[in-house]
Here is the input.
Amino acid sequence: MLRYTLGRLLSGIITVWFIATATFLAMHAVPGDPLMNEKATTAEIRENLARKYGLDRPLAEQYVIYLSNMIQGDFGISFTQQNRRVNDIIKDHFPVSAALGILAITFAALGGILWGAITALYRNQLPDIIIMFLVILGISVPSFVFAALGQLLLVNLNQWFGTSILPVAGWGTFSHMLMPSLVLGLGTMALLTRLMRSSMLEVVNEDFIKTAKAKGLSPQRIFFKHQLRNAILPVVTVLGPQIAAITTGGFVVELVFAIPGLGRYFVQAVQQLDYTVIMGTTVFYGAFLVLMVILVDIIYGFIDPRVRLK
Amino acid sequence: MNTTRILTEADFAPAPSKENLEQITRPSLSYWEDAWIRLKKNTRALISLYLIIGLAFFTLVGPWIWTKDPAAQDLDQISQAPALPKTALLVKDFEPSPTPIDINHPSEPSGYPDALDAVTNFTVQGTPTTQSVRLSWAPVNEAGGYSVYRSESAPDGMLGLGLPLASLTSGNIVGFEDRLNLKSQTYYYSIIPTDGFDEFDAVTTLEVSPQQSITVSQALERQLIDGDDRPGQTVQLAFHPLGTDYLGRDMLARLMQGARVSLFIGVVAPLIYVLFGVFYGGFAGYLGGTIDQILMRFADFVVALPFLLFMILFKIAFGIGPGESGVLPMLIALILLLWPATARLVRGQVLRIREQGYIEAARLLGGGPSYLIARHIIPNTMGVILVTLTFAVPSAIFTEAFLSFIGMGVAPPTPSWGSMCNEGVKTMLSHPHELFFPALFISITVLAFNLLGDGLTEALDSKMRSKE
Here is the structure.
């Protein structure tokens, strides 16, 4: 297990290096001069930045400076906001996105497992048909439409009750998080429901279920202890990539619900061509996603011994 | 009795074979014929296929049938909901007219009145049109002026009077002409007498429904009439079956034009990157060994790039010049980022197929590598590739819509379904149709491709077939 974990970590570090390099090259291909952004830069900032990043030096040297800064955990200083380090921006805004993402993935995983189990239990009956119809809807409707509809729903709910049941936008309390994270998790929930359903139906034909039946176990025990637990395994495997989808999918939800998360900051940075913020955020997100995938893999290794033996 | 039989050519012809008569079998079907038959049984997949053909027709042929310019603005019908063709009353161009004054009435009150009567005789002069609503009233005794309000909903006494239109500071003014951004809907005009400064608690409300109208010069400018039409006639306004957007552009024409962008990206990008992935994965899988390891390692790295962030990065890296739509950068970014998934899949397939018995058999019979690839490996991966392609289309359409929605996609004025949603979401509460239609088209397209993909998976899956 230790060897497996170390191997995954090593390949993760190489992956992060690749992401950092790709980000560096992509940002260098952006047309225009980073220091000619007259709107937001004063001469003082320009001079400091040129010295700090050696922008007049050859590309290879810049790359080395960039990497060594990044290894020391220094993402640099924002180009558009005076005296604000990229590290501070990430520190201030990433927890918001993370909280939103964690709640969303919780909604998605719990909902997906629950609905998937129900559809498999009532296969080809009314609950199955209704839930699978909603799942198809969840997969086909873009997330921004859900975000807009979710907000509309809140407006109408609040009007109906005459008081503010749930805030329509903004950030701060737990009630602010509910609707955005539900909207954010909806697509993933639909996907997981589908996966859970097919995996449940596959497990039902396995020999160990027949054995359990032959032993005379109660249907409830077979369902919860044997069928459900085995069917959850494939759902856990896709959680890693789905966390990635949810954190980046957060852009739209953060924009629509006016949530001060890192995604919104990234979009803003791109619009203002804030080089250091764009690079820092991308590498940070990339490293975070790689870490998440590794984490899920390791957890999966614990749950299913077959994986780590391979 | 000896008879001589003359043998002819026919006697030496082979007797008709009776073998076929005893055969009870269906004609043999190729893989694709079989898949097609199974797909046809799947109603959902078939309907999806027709929907996709319909969408292709909508965007390719549509603009020839519905020839309205998607960029042309109809300023008479801005944010118009879907409706039947509208007519408008032709009215004279604006001519300034003097403020109507009752010369027999004093312009200022004699003292400081404690209370004033409500305005009487509050009526509309002539036909109220969206060009102008002429209000008139009888002067109130001792009034020093009047306040005129306009509301879109009925006011409750002194509450909810709406937009203050005018504060008239003379007691003998007996009329007001409203020309402020009128639409063909019901308005509630309220008038309150004042002493010149303060309003009194006496309101009169009038309900007015202006008629859609257009001035002669506007109509001429928009080529709705030829020179000899006279004011008072009705003119046919431009028809917008799905309404117009916030700039008065025809939604139907824009949806057709936007479909071109969305479907172009949605179909062409997957076609290219799936093709590239097939070559890359097939190459790696066929060669195997160290080259395979290196190639697939690189593919793993590309998979690990955070997709949407890099879509945005690449898009700004390629840059959009003035006047460009930004479709090409998006296409290239999609191809650069999404090929590894197909490459991995095809490699896995090739590795699996390479070990199959029939490949071994073909090789023993003397089949060379090119024969094996062309005759056995490629046809056997086609099913998986086709399914991948079908599922790749909706994800590409989603990506385009997502990026255009956050303003990182197609540059205006080029319409795409995503950018139309982006514009529509801003007026979601007042004009929901501007968001509804593009969102509906995205959803239908994605749904159709997803269901078709499901149907294809089932039709092409040999595991499913053996179960029947």
The mean pLDDT of chain A is 81. Chain A touches chain B through 44 residues (CB under 8 Å). The CA atoms of residues 24 and 63 of chain A lie 7 Å apart. DSSP finds twelve helices and no strands in chain A.
